[in-house]
Amino acid sequence: MADKSAIEWTDATWNPITGCSVVSPGCTNCYAMKLAGTRLKKIDSRKGLTRDTKAGPVWTGEVRLNKQWLYQPFDWKKPRRIFVCAHGDLFAENVPDDWILDVFTVMAAASHHTYQVLTKRTERMREFVSRRDLLDDIYTNWYTFSGGAREVQSWPLHNVWLGTSTEDQKRADERLPDLLSTPAKVRFVSAEPLLGPLDISKYLRPLCDRCPPWEVPCRIGCEHCTRLDWVIVGGESGPGARPMHPAWARSLRDQCANNRVPFFFKQWGSFQQVYDRQVEDHDWRRCDIVARETPNGQWLNLAGGQGFHGESVVRVDRVSKKVAGRLLDGIEHNGMPELREAAVL
Fold it and tell me: From 266's CA, which of 91, 148, 248, 345 has a CA 20 to 30 Å away?
């Protein structure tokens, strides 16, 4: 929990719930999991949430409600974009519905902030947020908190953005249909770590016949539109990081541009491209030289294979996250949905 964050697309992190479990390849090098099993392992909010393995700390599936942080957003007077459960998953399997309800109640009540909820459990999120009694439960819960209640002026909440992580095509096709069926003012996808080529163009096109014809694509936040409103892309960083092919990031940038969807390029991660065989060396005469010059590097092809052969082979070299930076073809991409006025309890 911090009222400031180094994560480029948010202002603060809020961890009312910590703990998680590994569900897909994107979890392998989870920074929160590694921290919970190393530097933070003796802190009450993380203690016992991981187990030691030969590959390092791994989530046990245990989750924890940190009541001391539940009401933190009320203490932050300046409006912020807040990443919810940055060290866990609000919709993880072992999180009780009552805990999720508490978090939604605080998000509705501390309505001067914008909340960014990111999950890999889109089916559970859809089912929970689609409950017909959810708004009544928020009223009742807030009354329990404060001894009084006020009216929520809009639903879904204007200040809650719902998103999912999609590291590859398989996960995108599994999770994005659920996300697009979830009531939300803003829906977004985080393709980080991006581990393979990703075509999400069909999820970026507006599916709405309610907006005026001159608003194509649909305006951001249209309650009748079922497209994605925002795309975040990033490579993996840290020990054991897996490289991202530049063509994967460029493709998502272009898909967003073609559909006028905000695009945010977060980082290259722990690798940068140092050689493009197709562009720089048509005869493949320098490959051995490049490999010797970059002993910590890897060959990477368009399909994600790390061998020398394949389509669009590049050489990527391991560097620090800072050195790799976040420029894509020399441009910093900071696209973001428009901030909306929050609902009020």
Answer: 91
Q: Please count the other Cβ atoms lying within 10 Å of the Cβ belonging to residue 288.
A: 9
pTM of the model as a whole: 0.91
Q: Per-residue confidence at 195, pLDDT binned at 50, 70, 90?
A: very high
Question: CA Rg, the chain, in Å?
Answer: 21
CA gap 75, 96 in Å, rounded: 25
CB 218 within 8 A of CB 206: yes
CA distance linking residue 315 with residue 8, whole number of Å = 27
- DSSP secondary structure string for all residues of 319-345: --HHHH-SEETTEE-B--PPP-PPP--
Q: What is the pLDDT of residues 239-257, one digit of tens each?
A: 899 999 999 999 999 999 9
Distance CA 171, CA 307 (A): 24
CB–CB of 306/261 below 8 Å? Answer: no
Distance CA 2, CA 12 (A): 6
Mean of pLDDT over the chain: 90
* Two structure tokens written together for 249: 């990031």
Phi, psi of 149 (to 5 degrees): -150, 150
Reference 326, options 272, 260, 262, 251; nearest CA is 272
Phi (first) and psi of residue 143, to 5 degrees: -65, -40
Q: What is the pLDDT of residue 344?
A: 42
Q: Which amino acid is at 12?
A: A
pLDDT mean over 7-24: 97
- Assigned token pair, 286: 């320098």
Bridge partners of 88, per DSSP, are 19
Conformation bin of residue 251: beta by default, left when phi > 0, alpha when psi is -120 to 50: alpha
